[in-house]
Amino acid sequence: MYMSKISKLLVMKKIMLLPLLLISISLYGQGTINDSIRKTQYGDAWWARTHGDYKKSERILDNLIKLEPTNPKNYFEKANIHYLKKNVDSMSIYFNRALELGMDSMKVLDEYYSYYTLQMRDNNKRIEYVDKMIKIQPSNSIFYLKRSSIWLDLHNYDDSWKDLEKAASLGNEQAKKSMEYIIETRKKLKEKGIIK
Fold first, then answer.
1. What angle do CA 137, 123, 92 make, to 5 degrees?
2. What is the pTM of this model?
3. Which of these CATH numbers, 1.10.760.10, 3.30.230.10, 1.25.40.10, 1.20.120.920, describes 36-103?
4. For range 178-188, the mean pLDDT
């Protein structure tokens, strides 16, 4: 009789444990999505964005933000929609939120640089963002090349040359070749009497 009671008690515990186990399994992972679903959603949002369907792309990213409100990439991607729509205020809000959540600041600064280069063609803003990137990574020769190009667009040849020299001193082969070409061209123009 004692064994019968123990057996019944064990069966009762198992029966009670089963619903709790099922509930815990169903609750596990709520509020998160797996990588394959996330990648598919990013792919769908990217496709919609690149095909001009900004509303669809925003809907997808809004859903991702609801599911993963602390994922900085969701906000970064949403900022890129506003980048294409030339909506600087909204773009800045989403880029700043991505930064707050831990997005790589260089990636965000480079997006701002691209925005002011390709969308707005604002050389002063381009300089501002390249300066910020140089401040963070002063030994990255690419940023000096970018700034040299901007100075060239602004007809500021002295500063353009200084940045080209800096990029070359950091080992950038493109900068070295550009400097060699400029020096050789100047020499030929002087020989022909075109410049002094």
1. 70
2. 0.65
3. 1.25.40.10
4. 92
Q: Could you report the per-residue pLDDT of 55-99, keeping only the tens digit for each?
A: 999 999 999 999 999 999 999 999 989 988 988 899 889 999 998
Find the mean pLDDT for residues 115-142.
90
One-letter amino acid for residue 60 of the chain? I
Q: What's the chain look like in SS3? A: CHHHHHHHHHHHHHHHHHHHHHHHHHHCCCCCCCHHHHHHHHHHHHHHHHCCCHHHHHHHHHHHHHHCCCCHHHHHHHHHHHHHCCCHHHHHHHHHHHHHCCCCHHHHHHHHHHHHHHHCCCHHHHHHHHHHHHHHCCCCHHHHHHHHHHHHHCCCHHHHHHHHHHHHHCCCHHHHHHHHHHHHHHHHHHHCCCCC
State the sign of the Cα–Cα–Cα–Cα dihedral 46, 50, 56, 62: positive
Among the listed ranges 12-21, 94-103, 112-121, which one has the minimum average pLDDT value? 12-21
Q: Which residue has the tokens 């969701």?
A: 74
